[in-house]
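new request in #modeling-help
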Amino acid sequence: MMNLIINGEELQVADVLSVSELLEHLKLDGKRVAVEVNLEIVRREARSSFALHENDKIEIVSFIGGG
Amino acid sequence: MTQDTFKLGDREFRSRLLVGTGKYASLEETREAILASGAEIVTVAVRRVSLSGEDSILKAIPEGVSLLPNTAGCYTADEAIRTARLAREAGMTEFVKLEVIGDKKTLFPDIPATIEAAKQLVDEGFTVLPYVTDDPVTALRLQDIGCAAVMPLAAPIGSGLGIKNPYNLRIIIEQARVPIIVDAGVGTASDAAIAMELGCDAVLMNTGIAAAKKPILMAEAMREGITAGRKAYLSGRMGKKLYATASSPLDGLID
């Protein structure tokens, strides 16, 4: 098990090694989200090779209605 | 009129009405309002995804309509830059409505922070559309930096007060080498028409449509107001006179 801080909340995950695996685990459509790990954006082409580590701080954002 | 368009960055648009996607009752209403407005550009905000999975605003956006992510809710240049970078990654667009708020109560922008963030984002290749107060000097600075447009407010965000300082807007428009988009304060269709008659290139609004009792009908009214105002501007209005001038010829009057 690995501890991650995702959007400010702690989450224990198993068998999640990369950013794309994390998105799959969370059942999020990767097409219209942005992922930041420890304040660095992980570009979509790097998601499958970007390894996650214990206590990484992750932000996953998308769009909502706004003016 | 043959192809009356305006350019943002390297893209050309026909509709001079840009609309927001906040404050609607449902995604369906959002979509209907966008369609009725004829907008080709819609704004969206960047937020953390809900891990419980809810419907995305993107479902409400009709095919072919361009996204304009905003940095709403940011109070520093750094926050706005970070949000813009995330928006580019999520939305696959270089467009960003730059908004750095300076005061919670009025939602007026922090001008020095807006200029600082604009510089950085222009350097990073963004097409930057900054929301600013209606100050002509600020507008000049932002166009000099390389912003793709300048977006002065007509009145405070969500106030619906209409065009409060047409003289400043006129000065901003006269000095402009980039499109001027009135952003915020428009409450009804005549406000939109006035903005366009002043010579603005476009108008961006959200609450003016979303807070109407019948938002979809108001979206249509705004679209028509924009078109009417634009045509009136291009026509070159008559001069104002204090006294009457008869419209009917005086020749041939009966004795």
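bot summary: Strands of chain A lie at 2-6, 9-13, 34-37, 40-41, 57-65.
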